[in-house]
Amino acid sequence: MQPHTYTTEAGGTPAVLQALRARSPAPAASTLLLDRGGRVLLVRRGSEPYRGYWSLPGGHIEPGEDSMEAAVRETVEETGIKPVIHGLAAIAEVIGRERHYVIIVYWGRGDGTPRPSSDALEASWFTLEEALRENLTPSTRTLLENWEPGLMLNIVCRCNRCTATRLGRSEHLPG
Predict the structure, then answer these.
(1) Beta partners for 29?
(2) CATH number of the domain bearing residue 122
(3) Of all helices (H) and strands (E), which one includes residue 69?
(4) N or C: which end of the chain has fewer CB within 10 A?
(5) pLDDT on residue 119
(6) Is the pLDDT of residue 124 over 70?
(7) Is residue 105 part of a domain?
(8) Structural domain count of the chain
(9) 26-34 and 100-109 as β-strands: parallel, antiparallel, unpaired?
């Protein structure tokens, strides 16, 4: 029996593994961060998908990192503001033709002047009414239209059409 050989792409990763990763859901985490006045922190995306749209700060979960650590890290990287997590807001699935993201969305509190960095073009606090007038990613718009503190949602977006299902209440996590 002959051993199986893999062809490799740049970086030495076998092409078959790259193809599997492209089809597998990518885990991500984000934070729905509210200030004392109830405003929500949004970032204008600097990369695809949805470059130029406003969304919650967030990104990929790194190997060995739990989802809450990733949500806090991404929020700090993109805005300079460290959130105090209070609970789970949603599980959002963004299913496109080429990518499938599973995003764990935490909610929390924070204050300060955001400083955009990392892959965020801008970062700013918005009232809910102001935010809903902006050019938001579909999953962010669906979340902001349906969420309230302590409520857990399941959001599924396919081809820019999103649905939200209320799952129940989230318990407060120690800050």
Answers:
(1) 59, 104
(2) 3.90.79.10
(3) helix 67-79
(4) N
(5) 86
(6) yes
(7) yes
(8) 1
(9) parallel
Evaluate whether residue 4 is within a structural domain. Answer: no
Is the residue at 160 inside a domain? yes
- Whether 162 shows a pLDDT value over 50: the answer reads yes
Cis peptide before 49 (omega within 30 of 0): yes
Mean pLDDT of the chain: 87
CA 175 – CA 165 distance, rounded (Å) = 27
Q: Using CA atoms, how far apart are residues 40 and 109, in angstroms rounded to an integer?
A: 9
Q: What is the DSSP letter of 8?
A: B
Residue 83 pLDDT > 60, yes or no? yes
88 vs 170: CA distance, rounded Å: 6
> Under DSSP, is residue 17 helix (H, G, I), strand (E, B) or coil?
helix
Confidence (pTM): 0.83
What CA–CA distances, in Å, run from 104 to 66, 70, 114, 158? 11, 10, 22, 17
| 13-24 pLDDT, tens digit each | 666 555 555 568
The identity of residue 21, as a single letter, is R
Domain hosting residue 115, numbered range? 15-168
Whether 114 contacts 125, CB under 8 Å: yes
